Each structure stands twice: as structure tokens, then as C-alpha cells.
Amino acid sequence: MATMSQSYADLKLLIGGEWTPKDGREHEPVMNPATGECIGVLPHASKADLDRALDAAEKAYPVWRGMSPQDRGKILKRAADLMHERAEHIARIATIEEGKTIHETRLETHGSADILEWYAEEGRRAYGRVLPQRAPGVRMTVLREPVGPVAAFAPWNFPVGNPCRKLGAALAAGCPCIMKPAEHTPASALEVARALMDAGLPKGVISIVFGVPSQVSTHLLASPVIRKVSFTGSTKVGKQLMKLAADGMKRTTMELGGHAPVIVFDDVDVENVLDLSATSKFRNSGQVCVSPTRYYVHEKIYKQFVDGFAARASSWVVGDGLVETNKMGPLAHTLRLNAMEELLSDAKKHGAHFDAGGSRIPGPGYFWEPTVLSEVPNEARIMNEEPFGPIAIINPFSDFGDVIKQANRLPYGLAAYAFTRSNRTVNLLGDQLEAGLIGINSYLISVRDSPFGGIKESGHGSEEGMEGLEACLVTKFVSES
Predict the structure, then answer these.
(1) Which one of 104, 117, 122, 255 is the catalytic residue?
(2) Measuring CA to CA, which of 116, 159, 359, 451 is 20 to 30 A from 79?
């Protein structure tokens, strides 16, 4: 399993338009998950740094919202162009610090640039409306205005895409943004910020800070400067942030955990569904919030499906994401290794059958075998807790009503998938599956102009699409006479 060493990045904070180095601040190491080696030192923002970021956002707000949507869009478009030009550089940084394959980070970088470009155009369509006249000389209008400075918290699994989602929506709406990306993957977010600054973004419109997550979030959300909170991460942390936001009646967008079911009916092309499923399951080592995880397969094709998935998992090429021939990289950090071990140990105790994988791959780095489990009872933790790793769980079903109950059994409702050739079944699935994102005969459920978000304990609100822009706008009614 070959690895490749590459130069990384000089990590800094971006506060009020100024790049701020470590300079005696608290700091932490950044690790390469493919080697387990330290590759950088990340400075933490002090309380004084956070206050400077808040002050900069407050001062930049009237300047940024006062610019026309066309002029704001020009900056976002230029930043998108720069990201396309720098795509190979950004992709390599993302692979080095997060672990996913270079093929994935190239696609992520170009797709993330497209998000900025799309928001550059959508920001020009934040329309209000004029109401029908009630009396001569009376005009009533509904206006859409930026909500104000945004505090955004982005996770590590899409180190380029998550920052672009949050920054693109806020900036297009006219809102400054203070972002805390994940400390595991800081350089990717800093490259996004660099593209925006190089594109001419006024100083203070964005700040990028790092630190102990609970300390940073508590400090930022306590400030009256912040009017909107955008968070992607676990349900547990999302609930904590909502409590903090409630004290200031701050608007929230929460994209939280999931545990996506996949229902496979007996009328499908099994080999085609298997090819699609393995690719989707093992991308980014399964560290995707919408990753297909709980497979419910009709009993008539169940054994064929389990055997086929296990064969694909056993042949999947795993190694350093910088090696072009590898199809899956490492897990992002040691915490994921611990989670895999605990969940799989519990599954074994509950009688789960291990059809492929199930162990850490020996050697340096945080590599895990692509794993397939079958006959897993609902009592096992892995049937109730998101594994966030390269694990496919496959159980049989025979009755439509029963499998819908199983798919909807958990409190999460982010993504769900199904495969069938029956138009009637497709209609029933669309009505009865409880999820914010549903893929039928496809795993493609996220494009830049579609809403991305969940229901139930998977959160509320949406990113991307017009809904992402609207989340950063407030409505004002004006009556004139």
C-alpha cells in the first residue's frame, strides 16, 4: 500500500482581511491520515482574535450589503475562476489533510467552484414583490434583505465543498461570514478564502478562525453581531448550538447526522445496482453524511446481492489518496478508527455476519478494510448509530410495508435511496420515505441548484439551491402612503 509525501501549507488565521500566523498563540498539530505524520501546526484564535473578527464583520456589513448583487457576483465568479485555475493544488492539499483520493478532491474542487459561480448569479434574483394597490397613493412592498453577519461551522469530510456552500450563500446574500472550518482539514478552507480575497473581496467580509470548537462557538454566538448560524455536523453538537443561538434568537441552518437506508427491490439489474452501490458506499471511505448504509434487499435477490457486494469490497484498492490507482483512502483521523472498532465489535456480539473486511489495515496511516455485514439485528449499535465509515449493512425484506417501517425507524431523515423498475413503487417511495433527500434509481442527490438538507433529527433548513440563499435573507414589509 504505497504512500506519497508532499509539501503541505503554511497555516494561518484570516481575520479582518489580514493573514495572522501562529505568533505565540495556542496551536495544535495537523496530521496526514495516510501516514499518521504531523504535517503542519495550526494556530488557535484567541478571544481577542474572535473579537477582532466580529468587529471586522460588523464594520464590513454595511459596505458589503451596500454593493450591488452584480458587483458581489463578479467577485464570487472571479473566485470561482481562480479555484478552477488552482484546482490541482487545492485538490492535493485536500487529499493530504483529509485522505480521500485525488480523483475525488479534483471533482470536489471544481464542483465547489461551481457553487460559488452559481451563487454569484442567484444573488441577483433575491426578489421582493409589490402587493396589489389597496387605495390610490398607497404602495405596499415586500423586500428581501441580508440577515446580517453569519457564523458558519464546517466539518472535515468535504474540506473544500462545505466552506464553499456556506460562504457562497452568505456572500451572495450580502452577509459577512466568520467561518470555523474543521481543525483536521484547515488548509483546504484557507485556499477557498485565499481565492475570495485574491478576487477582490473587501477586508472584513470573511474571517477564518480555528480553535477549541465549543469555545469558539460559545464566544461567537454570544455576540449580538452574529445574526445567523450555519452548522454541518453531528446531531448532538447541532442541538447544543441551537440552544446557544436561542438566547439571541439567531436564525439557524442545521445539516446534521443521518443513517441512510437503501431499499433494493427484486426487479432491478442486480449487477448494475451493486456497481453503483459500492462506488457510492466507499467514496471518501464512507465518511459522507448521505452515504448509503442500511441496505434492505428483497429476499429473492438477497444472497446474490450480499455475495456481489462482498466481492467488490474485497477487491477495492485502498491506499494513499495521492496514488492515482487507489480507489479509497484512509479514514480522516484516529477517532474514526476507534468508532469502527467499537461498532463492529458490538455487531459481532449481536450475531452479525461478516462477509468482507472488518479490520484495520496494518501499517502506517488510518486505513480500514471495506466492510460488508449481513443479518444484523436492530439491537446492534451500528443499526442505530451512523458508522461514518466504509461499512455496508445488508438485511433481507419481503413486504413493502415492513421495509418502509424499517427505513423510517430511526429519528434521522437526511437521505434515503431505493432501486426498482416499477413506476407505482417509485410513486409510493417518494410519498412514504421520510428524508429530505431521496434518490430513486440513483445516488445523485446533491447538485448546486437543488436544496440539500434533512428532516427530523437530521436538522432543518437547506444549503445550496435558492433555499440556501433564502436562509441568509430576511423579509421586510413596507407600506407607503
Answers:
(1) 255
(2) 451
